[in-house]
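A.,

Following up on our hallway conversation. Structure tokens first:
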């Protein structure tokens, strides 16, 4: 684990416009300042998927100001847990990190109705991750 007082989690997908944004938003929302959250993409898009923004707004989480970010070696090295979501071999590997690969449908090009079940599955996994980290989710 990092020398930081709180665990650090990095979510990585290809475009950092859908799954990783949802995961980062839920972990930030539920973990608060008890966890450091980053997200990035191996080939970042220009904007966050509008259906993802809408699906999160439905559950009271506003990510309308978020922008996709490029994956950097520094972000990976600064993270205790790296959770990949379909970036495959584009994600570098650093020894000593905990890696999880979450197989999730890609919301790219889909409407909000198709994004809702992806959103709900990611929330379920985030709650499980918080439990593993010993962090009680915010109400």
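Then the amino acids I'd put at each of the 139 positions:
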């Amino acid at each position: 684990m990092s020398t930081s007082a709180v665990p650090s989690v990095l979510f990585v997908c290809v475009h950092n416009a859908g799954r990783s944004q949802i995961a980062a938003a839920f972990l930030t929302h539920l973990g608060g300042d008890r966890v450091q959250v980053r997200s990035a993409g191996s080939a970042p898009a220009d904007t966050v998927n509008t259906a993802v923004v809408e699906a999160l707004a439905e559950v009271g989480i506003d990510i309308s100001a978020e922008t996709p970010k490029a994956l950097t070696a520094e972000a990976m090295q600064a993270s205790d847990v790296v959770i990949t979501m379909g970036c495959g071999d584009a994600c570098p590997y650093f020894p000593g990190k905990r890696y999880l690969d979450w197989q999730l449908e890609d919301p790219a090009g889909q409407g909000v109705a198709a994004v809702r079940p992806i959103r709900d599955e990611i929330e379920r996994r985030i709650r499980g991750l918080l439990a593993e980290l010993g962090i009680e989710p915010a109400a």
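The longest strand covers residues 8-13. Curious whether your intuition agrees with the design.

B.
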